[in-house]
Amino acid sequence: MAARRRSTVATRLEEKRAERAAAAVPPGQEALFGVALLKLALELKKPGAPALEALVPGVVRRMGLDEAAFLAWLAANGGLLRGAAGRRG
User: Fold this and answer.
1) pLDDT for the residue 75
2) Is 29 within 8 Å of 65 (Cβ atoms)?
3) Is 23 in contact with 77 (CB distance < 8 Å)?
4) Alpha carbons 70 and 33: distance in angstroms, whole number
């Protein structure tokens, strides 16, 4: 049982490390990712707003951000936004 528990904990730690590596933000972009997150939140508050997944490409494109890097960052940091989008929904 103890060996199984350690392997589960080790697996979770490895997953967290992988998430952090995937969420590595290009230098100087983290502040812009935060701005993009705020823009997405404002868009989601509008009546009749489309789903979060439909909004992301447009916001990222207008801001000139790397979409893959933003999506990785959003996966690691966008829990509250996704929760809000789900409640709106």
Assistant:
1) 83
2) yes
3) yes
4) 7
pLDDT digits (tens, 9 = 90+) for 16-72: 665 665 556 767 788 899 899 999 989 989 999 999 889 999 999 999 999 998 888
CB atoms within 10 A of CB 67: 12
Query: Six-digit token pair at 69?
Result: 């890097």
5 Rama sector, left if φ>0, alpha if ψ -120 to 50, beta otherwise: alpha
Overall residue count recorded for the chain in this entry: 89
Nearest to 66 by CA among 38, 39, 28, 40: 28
pTM exceeds 0.90: no
d(C-alpha 42, C-alpha 24), whole Å: 25
Is 46:56 a contact under the CB 8 Å cutoff? no
- Closest by CA to 37, choosing from 25, 21, 20, 19, is 25
